[in-house]
Design brief:
Blueprint: H1 8-19, E1 52-55, E2 61-66, E3 72-76, E4 81-85, E5 91-96, E6 108-113, E7 123-128, E8 133-138, E9 140-141, E10 145-146, E11 150-156, E12 166-169, E13 175-178, E14 198-201, E15 217-219, E16 225-230, E17 236-240, E18 247-251, E19 277-279, E20 286-292, E21 295-300, E22 305-313, E23 316-317, E24 321-323, E25 331-336, E26 342-347, E27 363-367
Antiparallel strand pairs: 1-27, 2-3, 3-4, 4-5, 6-7, 7-8, 8-11, 9-10, 12-13, 13-14, 14-15, 16-17, 17-18, 18-19, 20-21, 21-22, 22-23, 22-24, 25-26, 26-27
Region (Disordered): 22-53, 347-370
InterPro entries: 6-blade_b-propeller_TolB-like (IPR011042), Glc/Sorbosone_DH (IPR012938), Quinoprot_gluc/sorb_DH_b-prop (IPR011041)
Protein name: Glucose/arabinose dehydrogenase, beta-propeller fold
């Protein structure tokens, strides 16, 4: 920021706006030590390879999911298009989803693919409509593309900010969704509301057996969940935007209270579940997450970096490591490649808060080794 004098009122407004967004404002620091949160890494990590472009010229690619045949589907937030991207980068449209109403941080957000073991070729999408955020299911064929959407869940609170939007199938075969509080903090603590939660449901949108409150709610007290991932032990991780103090990575427990709006970061007191990692917003504004090569990989928007968090087992994590700081701009989605040898990462420089490079936005491939 500059050295000009601001009035107190202006400072308050600026802080409120920064706390309500995907992360805009000031540029990240060139290097930032990770905030305390890990328990130390067991060994020195081997650096990943340099990112390379898979495909370019995209418009705010919000989600990446791989298909059984090795291609990926990519959701563009504002155009409502779903693109099919081959491993060699060849890209074509798979369909445009009806009913998407992009506004602010809303639009076409998360995608999920039914587990291959089910034999179901359906694709699921989370998007902002004129009335709410909702999840739909669509048949998918490689040649014909996406079919007509069928509503699976509706009534998730929506707004210009804090829409959550990440969906993923867990190792139990259930569909999970990370939602936001839609700017209404009280929703996060209301276990009858779908806002500010991690939801767990059957593929048909019914409450999954064993859910702690008998409805779709799996955990609560969240502000804006945009990343979901599981490790090899089945431990579930979620990334969460804080307001002005701390962003978080949480290990998700059924019925867990993650504290918002009472606390941000590590409260150190019951009944709140403390995050395993906390960052300041200029280091993170964390969105997509994926597990690969023994680490959790988290895309940072305002932080303009890819975070690697070593997974030590039992929900314990090592010290976070910041990679590619400021090199590719805002990063949004992360997906592990089917062979586990890399991750694909999307930029989000055309979302109104970035500084686009020529041919942005893009999908990057980052090679990994253990």
């Amino acid at each position: 920021m500059g050295q000009r004098a601001w009035t107190a009122a202006t400072v308050v407004v600026a802080l409120l706006v920064a706390g309500c967004s995907d992360g805009g404002g000031e540029r990240p620091r060139e290097s930032a030590p990770p905030s305390p949160g890990g328990t130390g890494s067991p060994e020195r990590l081997i650096p990943p390879g340099e990112p390379r472009d898979v495909t370019t010229g995209l418009g705010v690619p919000w989600s990446i999911v791989f298909l059984p045949d090795g291609a990926a589907l990519v959701a563009e937030r504002d155009s409502a298009r779903v693109l099919r991207v081959e491993p060699d980068g060849a890209t074509r449209e798979a369909g445009e989803i009806e009913g998407v109403r992009p506004q602010g941080e809303g639009g076409l957000l998360g995608l999920a693919v039914a587990p291959e073991s089910t034999g179901d070729t359906a694709v699921y999408a989370y998007f902002t409509s004129a009335e709410d955020n909702r999840i739909v299911r669509m048949p998918y064929d490689t040649e014909a593309g996406l079919g007509e959407p069928e509503i699976v869940v509706s009534g998730i609170p929506s707004a210009s900010f804090h829409n959550g939007g990440r969906i993923a199938f867990g190792p139990d075969g259930m569909l999970y969704a990370g939602t936001g509080d839609a700017g209404r903090e009280e929703l996060a603590r209301d276990t009858d509301s779908l806002g500010g939660k991690v939801l767990r449901m059957t593929p048909d949108g019914e409450p999954a057996e064993g859910n702690p409150f008998g409805n779709l709610v799996y955990s609560y007290g969240h502000r804006n969940v945009q990343g979901l991932a599981w490790d090899e032990e089945g431990t579930m991780y979620a990334t969460e935007f804080g307001q002005n103090t701390y962003d978080e990575v949480n290990v998700i427990e059924p019925g867990g209270d993650y504290g918002w709006p009472e606390v941000e970061g590590k409260a150190g007191r019951r009944p709140y579940v403390d995050p395993v990692v906390e960052w300041t917003p200029d280091e993170a504004s964390p969105s997509g997450a994926a597990v690969a090569a023994g680490s959790l990989w988290v895309a940072a928007l305002r932080g303009e970096r890819l975070w690697r968090i070593p997974l030590l087992g039992g929900g314990e994590v090592g010290d976070p490591e910041a990679l590619f700081v400021g090199e590719r701009g805002r990063l949004r989605a992360v997906a592990a490649t089917p062979d586990g040898a890399g991750v694909w990462v999307s930029t989000s420089n055309l979302d109104g808060r970035g500084e686009p490079a020529p041919d942005d936005d893009r999908i990057l491939s980052v090679p990994l080794t253990r």
